Amino acid sequence: MPMPRAAHSPSASSTVLVRGACPHDCPDTCALLTTVQDGIAIRVQGNPAHAHTDGVLCTKVSKYAERTHHPDRILTPLKRTGPKGSGQFTPVGWDEALADIAQRLGSIAARDPQAILPYSYAGTMGLVQGESMDRRFFHRLGASFLHRSICSTAGGEGLLHTLGAKVGMKVEFFAEAKLILIWGSNSIGSNLHFWRYAQQAKRNGAKLVCIDPRKTETADKCQEHLQILPGTDAALALALMHELIANDWLDHDYIARHTLGWDGLRERALQWPPERAAAVCGIPAGQIRQLAKDYGTTQPAAIRLNYGMQRVRGGGNATRAIVCLPALTGAWRHRAGGVLFSSSGQFPVQRAVLQRPDLIPAGATPRTINMVTIGDDLLRKASPDFGPRIDAVVVYNSNPVAVAPDSAKVAQGFAREDLFTVVLEHFATDTADYADYVLPATTQLEHWDVHLSYGHTDVLLNRPAIAPMGQARSNAQIFRELAARMGFTDPCFADSDEALCQQAYGDKVDFNQLLDVGFAPLAIPDAPFAEGGFPTPSGQCEFYSERLAAQGLDPLPSHVPNHEAPGTAYPLAMISPPARNFLNSTFVNVQSLRNIETRPVLEIHPHDAAPRGIADGSVVRVFNDRGSYECHATVSERARPGVVNGLGIWWRKFGLNGTNVNQLTSQALTDLGAAPTFYDCVVEVALA
Length: 688
Prior knowledge:
With 688 residues, the chain is of the alpha/beta class.
């Protein structure tokens, strides 16, 4: 079947395949092929021509046609008619909606544009629909900045101060490794295409080790599982270093030529014998010794580090400690050795061209609001320290009422009658229920976009496969039209979505290649740090960070204990990893996927369930000082004793008592990156 260079016309009576890219917050960034018949997307599949995708999609995205043509799609602008949170709206025309929104925003901006806040994250990872025309609009307006920290900035800062950027080994070479540590990742559910490389390595004799507080589906398939307590990853990494030093499993030449601060790191690591770490991590010291021996005596050895382990108070330091390990053993010398946390820093995105920070009004220095603390910040009054009260929020590519921590406060903030809220959405999410206006946005099958990846090193282009459904418009188009309504005449606001795709990489990536085949690999060495050359100020792997020292922070990686420790009132630690068939709060309303997950659950170990009278399937109340959440218990050894797993992220409206697991999580921040601490949380559990 032909693959057109332009979008398929929905009126044509034919069947075509259209190349695209998965937009979701996942490291795999798969290449898609959408089958379109008579203007309707009837199938979404992986593109077999793209090596990383290899024709395979996860269960979630394979349902993307069902999601796009979902009967509950919002296809016309909606204006609120009932109380905030009621989800009561009436359809209005685009002209009426845009005119009123522009007038309301303009009135607030006349007082202080910092009272207006954009709130977005990775509902699409696309550079056009996620971070182009929207940023131009808010820059030109002079609105508050948003610190987009809700996912990975703790780990990202850890990488920055150690390796120099979000860089690492190429994912395809995990297939050649002889030892793979899968650290803080349920790869089967959240990094499927990496898992296929890991399985290839295992078939060739590699040992796979999972490090995770939960006995995940991935742990089931690994030869070894270290089921550590949440927030103890740095202690484990330092103990591994201790054993590498004690047994001289070190590459002294690599350390001498390509690292900075070895003496200080050595001294610190020697304070962490396996027995000390074992007491902190809640695992046998023998497991630590064996892992250290495996890591110190096996080459090539590779670490796949994922985001779960950095969602605790010490997440930044834990990342630093772990990513120091490959330099100690010289693992970077091999293309199948090293570590991968994120590859996104290797993409030559022209963000200043896309986002145009030069549009910020002269002399303006907008404040920054952290998206993690939106619950508190929406309830703050104006003050000299905080600045003006937040009077308007424009939400897109996010569902903060469901996904932000301490969600009782988030909902309370969005319920303010004096808060003007605009939400760009596909569906009536928890957040959309609180909007004054809901604007219908296109899905990935209906617009242009271009992507990077944080799990491989290929640029992908997304073409619209079908015409926008109903009155839906792309995010970029909506902000383009709002800019016009507000009198922003700068030429950049006329750039089309396709033009923005071309601007994203400029001449750094061949756009014709993207048009012709849909993807373009970056030219990156197979073993990027075999001879050092890290993108740090020193060019070395920085065990000691001068930049952290200049901020008054510990320049060496250390174990930073959690904010919350189990005690008498709340004796259980809780983590909230994703349900396998959801992606954050996306796909929760796709019935076929919700049928698989069945209902919100809390995994609890039999040793913790029995004294509480909890049986498998019991309705339980999970609670702490921040709130209460009701769900069904799954009594299972997937939870370790003393830790419960609240699988998320369900929409609140699907919860038994109208809440979800984020009713319990806190707004406390990480040591580096000012990121959330979702997995640094204590609770009690009782029968409801």
